[in-house]
């Protein structure tokens, strides 16, 4: 089973997240206990089973709760993670 999206689809998703959702990326890092201490985190890859957060020279893979076959399912998985992260931040 191929875990990768076509490169143009992946790069579009990665660029969109890094350009439009920096706040969510930072929330993911806090939720996943990744120290971002004054370093702007980014997403460096999105695969069907998860994504890679990059903070400085270090990469962190996070697996989605379920396998994502489509861009829409990736979006849903990222939105769900953002909701969890924001709820955790409030408590």
Outline:
The protein has 91 residues and is an alpha+beta fold. Helix content is 48%, strand content 19%. The protein has one domain: Split barrel-like (Alpha-Beta Barrel).
Description of the structure:
This protein is α+β, with helices and mostly antiparallel strands and 91 residues long. It is globular. The chain has helices spanning 7-20, 22-31, 71-90; strands at 42-46, 50-55, 58-63. The chain has one domain (7-90): PNP-oxidase-like (Split barrel-like). The chain starts with 6 loop residues before the first helix and ends with a helix. It is built from three helices and three strands. A three-stranded antiparallel beta sheet has the order 1-2-3.
Helix content: 40-55%
Our count of domains comes out at 1
Distance between the termini: 39 Å
**Main sheet attributes: strand count, strand direction, barrel closure:** 3 strands, antiparallel
Classify the secondary structure makeup into a structural class.
alpha+beta
Total DSSP helices = 3
Strand order of the largest sheet: 1-2-3
What global shape is seen?
Answer: globular
What would CATH call the homologous superfamily? Answer: PNP-oxidase-like
Mean pLDDT: 96
CATH 2nd-level architecture = Alpha-Beta Barrel
Proportion of beta-strand residues:
15-25%
Strand and helix order: HHEEEH
Low-pLDDT stretches are: none
Rg, Cα atoms, Å: 13 Å
- The level 1 CATH classification is Alpha Beta
DSSP strand count:
3
CATH-assigned fold name: Split barrel-like
């Amino acid at each position: 089973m191929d875990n990768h999206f076509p490169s143009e689809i992946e790069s579009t998703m990665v660029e969109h997240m890094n350009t439009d959702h920096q706040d969510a990326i930072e929330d993911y890092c806090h939720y996943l206990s990744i120290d971002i201490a004054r370093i702007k985190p980014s997403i460096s890859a999105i695969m069907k089973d998860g994504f890679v957060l990059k903070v400085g020279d270090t990469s962190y893979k996070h697996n989605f709760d379920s396998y994502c076959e489509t861009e829409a399912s990736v979006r849903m998985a990222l939105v769900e993670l953002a909701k969890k992260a924001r709820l955790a931040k409030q408590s």
